[in-house]
Design goal:
Elements: H1 7-23, H2 30-41, H3 48-57, H4 65-77, E1 81-84, E2 89-92, E3 106-111, E4 117-121, H5 124-136, E5 146-150, H6 153-161
Parallel strand pairs: 3-5
Antiparallel strand pairs: 1-2, 3-4
Length: 163
């Protein structure tokens, strides 16, 4: 399902992604741009095969599955997309065009109703509290990407209308 992203906003985000890649000594090729664009326009997380299907629908030259996986890995390394570990699906980073530094301690709010995803940054205090909680039981965190399930405002509002 496509998200309502106006063409001007999409162009700004893709240009910011090109700049970010260039700053890292990498290139946002046409196919990488196409994959990122599909993720930016999606209203919910996409699997690699869903991305592949969308890309192949919009072009005459088909992209092989391995290419999509390599492109998604590249985009993840460039911090332009995130992989949700709970579903092995991908979302475009919400901070591509932001002026601030991208945080490594990102949390995702996953809506059980519409499957939308909201990316939120954890505070340093919250991250330290989670690390300390894990340490108390002898557990060492390897990532602080948390995926929290719930109901978004739009779904809450629509559920309230049905009452």
């Amino acid at each position: 399902m496509k998200k309502q992203v106006n063409p001007k906003e999409l162009d700004v985000l893709l240009r910011a992604a090109e700049v970010a890649c260039a700053e890292n000594g990498a290139r946002l090729t046409q196919r990488r741009r196409q994959v990122l664009s599909e993720l930016m326009q999606s209203s919910s997380p996409l699997s690699a095969y869903e991305v592949l299907d969308l890309c192949n629908r919009s072009t005459t030259s088909t992209m092989p599955p391995m290419s999509v996986y390599r492109i998604l890995d590249f985009l993840e390394q460039q911090q332009l997309v995130h992989k949700l570990s709970s579903s092995s699906k991908y979302v475009a980073c919400a901070h591509i065009a932001c002026d601030h530094k991208h945080f490594q301690k990102t949390h995702f709010l996953l809506c059980d109703g519409c499957s939308s995803v909201e990316e939120v940054d954890a505070t340093e205090e919250a991250s330290e509290a989670l690390e300390q909680m894990a340490k108390t039981v002898g557990f060492k965190l390897t990532t602080q990407q948390f995926e929290l399930s719930g109901i978004c405002t739009a779904c809450q509002d629509s559920a309230g209308e049905g009452l």
